[in-house]
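Duplicate of earlier report; Na+/H+ antiporter subunit D input re-posted below.
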Amino acid sequence: MESLVCVPVVLPLLAAGVKLAIGGRLRRLQSLISLVTLGVSLVVSALLLVTVDAGGPLVTELGGWPAPIGICLVADRLSTLVLLVSSAVTFCVMVYSVANAYDVQEHDAPMAIFHPAFLVMVAGVADAFLSGDLFNLFVAFELLLSGSYVLLTFGGTESRIRAGATYTLMALASSMLFLIALAITYAATGTLSMAQLAVRFATLPEQVKLLVELMLLLVFAIKAAMFPLSAWLPDSYPTAPAPATAVFAGLLTKVGVYSLIRLEALLFPGGPISTLLMWVALATMLTGVLGAVAQTDIKRMLSFTLVSHIGYMVFGVALSTAAGMAGAIFYVVHHITVQTGLFLVTGLIERRTGTTSVSGLGGLMKTAPLIAVLFFVPAMNLSGIPPMSGFLGKLMLVQAGLAAGGPLPVLLVAGGLVTSLLTLYAVAKTWGKAFWRAPREATTGTVVESEEYTGQEPTVTTATLPVALSAPVAALVALGLSYTVLAGPLSALAQRAAVELMARGPYIEAVLGRDR
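Output:
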C-alpha cells in the first residue's frame, strides 16, 4: 500500500502533462482524462484511509532515499481523511466544469488551459496534505499558486487580472516568509523533516522555537485568510469562474488550516502562542461574519462567511487538546464540502439569471425550485442548524472549549455562538431577497462578475439547467447531509486522528523508524 501514497500527487501531474501535449484537440478525451484521473485519486484516497485507520501511518520515500535524508510522503488518519474529502470535492467540481463547458463560455478560453491548471492545483493540494518535509510543503504551496493563478485569471477580464494580481502578491509574500522560516529552521536544526524536527526542537532554546513558530504561523495565517491577513480573500475569490471559486473556497484556505494543525500538534505541542491563536480565532470569526452581514452580493457574502468560519478551526487548534483538535478536524471536513457546494450553487444562480446580486434577484423559489433547495440545505448546514454537521462540528468545539475552562476559551465559545447566529441572519437575508420575495419586488439590476448593482435592466436567462450540471451540486449537498447521518463514525474517526496527532509517536516512528 505504500506505493499508493504518491498516486494522488503524481497521477494529476502526469495527466496535466498529457493534456498539455494534446492541446485543444480531442475535447472529449480531455474531459475523460480529467474525470478518470480524479476518480482514480478518489478511490486511492479511500483505500489509504481504510488502511491507515486499521494499521497506522504509511510512508513513501521518494527516490528511495530514506528520511530524513530524502523527502517522504506520509499518510496518516488526518492526511488521508482530508485527502479523501478533497478528492470527492474536486471530482464533483470537475464534473460541473465539464458539463458547463467553461472552456467555451468563459471568453473562449480553451480547455487546454483550464483542465491542466486544475489538475496541477489538485496535485499541489494532495502534496500539501501528504508532505512529511517542510521544503516539500513549500513546493506544494507553489504548485497551488501556479495552478490557482491560472484559474483565478481564467478568461483574462480586467477584474480577474486585478484580483489575480492581489492574490499572487499575497501568495508570493507568504512564500518569501516561508523560505526565510525554512532557512532559520535548517540553520538551527540541520533538517527539514517534520518527524526529525519534532525530536530536535525539544533541544532548541525557547527563543529560537518561538521565532520559527511565529514565522510559520504568519505564513499559514496568510494562506488560511486569518485575521488580520484576510482582506485579500473577499476581493479575489468572487471574480473567478464558479468551478474555480468553489474549489478555492473549499480547499485552498483549508490547506493553510491543515498545515497549522499539523505543525502545532507535531512541532509545537502546548506552545506559548495558544493565547494569541485564541484571540486570532475570535477576531477572525467576528470580523468575517460582520462583513458577511453587510454584503448584497451572494459571492461576497459567502466569501466573508468563509473567513469567519476559518476562526472555528483555529479555535480548535488553539485549545491544544485532543478534543479541540478533533472538533477542528471535523469542522474542516464539514466546511470543505458545504462551502464548495454553496459556491457551485451560486454558479447555477449566475448562469440562470446573469447576476449574483440580491438587488437583481427575486422569486427563484418559484422559477428555479431545484436551485432554491440546493442553496437552502447547505446554507442551513453552514449556519449550524441542528442536527446538521455544521451544528455537530460547532458542538464539538463548544464542548472542547468549556472542558478547557478559563475565561478566554469561554469567551471564544460565546463568540462562536454569536458568529453562528449572525451567519444564520446573513444567509436568511440572502434567501429572503433572492429566493422568497416575489419577482416583481426585486430591484432591477445586473451584476457582471460580482460587481455591485449598477441600476441597469437585468439580463436574465430562463433556460433549463442541464441535469449533468445540477447532479454534481446535488451530490455535494448530499455528501454534506451524509455527515449528519454518519456523525458517529466520522466524529470517532476525527477523535482517533486527533489522538494520533497529539501523541506524535506513531508519526515519528513511521517516518524515522524505531532505531532512528
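The chain has one domain: 2-512.

Merging into the original ticket.
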